[in-house]
Amino acid sequence: MKLVDDVVRSLRVAKIFRENTDRISSLNFSANGETLLTSSDDDSIVIYDCLNGTPKRTLNSKKYGVDLIRYTHAQNTALHCSTKVDDTIRYLSLHDNKYIRYFPGHTKKVVTLCMSPIDDAFISGSMDKTIRLWDLRSQNCQGLMHLSGRPVAAFDPEGLIFAAGVNSESVKLYDLRSFDKGPFTTFKLPQDKECDWTGLKFSPDGKMILISTNGNVIRLIDAFQGTPLQAFMGFTNHKGIPLEASFTPDARYVFSGSTDGKVHCWSTESGVKMAILQSDHPGPIQCIQFNPKYMMMASACQNMAFWQPAVED
């Protein structure tokens, strides 16, 4: 089934899971689309089976808490940041719920964590106004950048460059092999006075950058020139909370949650709103992502919803 306008409009909640007792703070699909990882403020990690539509396992992280959970490339391992004790990043074996390695360095809350799409490198950014570059095989930080404000960061799909959004007004592009020379390009955008940038993602084709906020706007810019392409609006965010926005795998659509239980979808090309989908989420939909391989989407408040199209072939 191809992702076209009618299919997008027909997306419906197929299953709801109530595995958590507090907000789901992040989610991440495996590269093959077969499983989904979530972190929650109840200090648990839930692994879902996307093929059968069932929760597989729950792991607890009571001591350190858990946020920003990310699959690594190795089978059954994940990275996450902490919500308690300190701001160390932790590398976890999901198989036996044991830590493989710790990555200490940040002195304030980690707010962005991104795994390289091609190897064992990853980047982290923190409220301590730094971005750190790491390798899973070493607890020592491989690179450190001091910034003028809160960062958001992401790798491009080829894993050759990464983008850092700083102070909710500029996007800096770094070459991974020579990041210590500073950014090779900086895009200055009109500063978002009403809200902060809370997320940054490259489109799967690498041509666009999506900037999500804790306000009522999501920005789409050209990844090469920094030209503003779209500003997606018209969704409810009364509480000033970070709402995740995500691309579909073909980069043709962007989805976002809201604080009133609705999921909004726009065309990246035209900027037109394609659909407003009703979810059964009682709380703010802070997490939403499309499966990289299968025709399904996941959205989360305290509950997890799996979406599928209701279109007949």
UniProtKB/TrEMBL annotation:
GO term, biological process aspect, one: negative regulation of DNA-templated transcription, elongation
Keywords tagged on the record: Nucleus, Repeat, Transcription, Transcription regulation, Transcription termination, WD repeat
Name recorded for this polypeptide: WD repeat-containing protein 82
Organism: Elysia crispata (lettuce slug)
Entry's family note: Belongs to the WD repeat SWD2 family.
Lineage: superkingdom: Eukaryota
Broad class of the protein's primary localization: nucleus
Record Gene3D superfamilies: YVTN repeat-like/Quinoprotein amine dehydrogenase
InterPro entries cross-referenced by the UniProt entry: Swd2/WDR82 (IPR037867), WD40/YVTN_repeat-like_dom_sf (IPR015943), WD40_PAC1 (IPR020472), WD40_repeat_dom_sf (IPR036322), WD40_rpt (IPR001680)
